[in-house]
Amino acid sequence: MCRSSHVRFIRAYPQEEETVKIRKQRAALDRIIATVADYYRLDTSEILGHSRTQRRVEARQIVMWLMRTRSTASFPEIGVLMDRHHSTILHGCAKIERLIKRDAELREDLRRIQVRLDSQLMK
């Protein structure tokens, strides 16, 4: 009897560890959404919504790019979180990559957002 409970614990432990890892990653991704929303003075629902106004689309794509570059989340995982197809996430990340090369204002916005994210990790 003791052995079977021990075996169950050993089998369950990796799943429990994985759940903690997933929760931490989800919290980090939620923090990215909240930080970008705050920076652009948007509600998180506007980031996750389907509005196509340039301001919201750019903020949404920045969230996608930050999630991809600052976490281990895959395009499909980010897509699930943001209620988008993974190809939309791929497009958004690629667009931000292109804009970074030529848009100094965007680079500065990204720098400031990342400083905010980093300072939140210190708390």
UniProtKB/TrEMBL annotation:
PROSITE patterns: DNAA. One of its GO terms (molecular function) is ATP binding. Coiled coil: none annotated. GO terms for biological process: DNA replication initiation; regulation of DNA replication. Residues 28-96 form the Chromosomal replication initiator DnaA C-terminal domain. SUPFAM superfamilies: TrpR-like. InterPro entries: Chromosome_initiator_DnaA_CS, DnaA_C, Trp_repressor/repl_initiator. SMART domains: Bac_DnaA_C. GO terms for cellular component: plasma membrane. This is Chromosomal replication initiator DnaA C-terminal domain-containing protein.
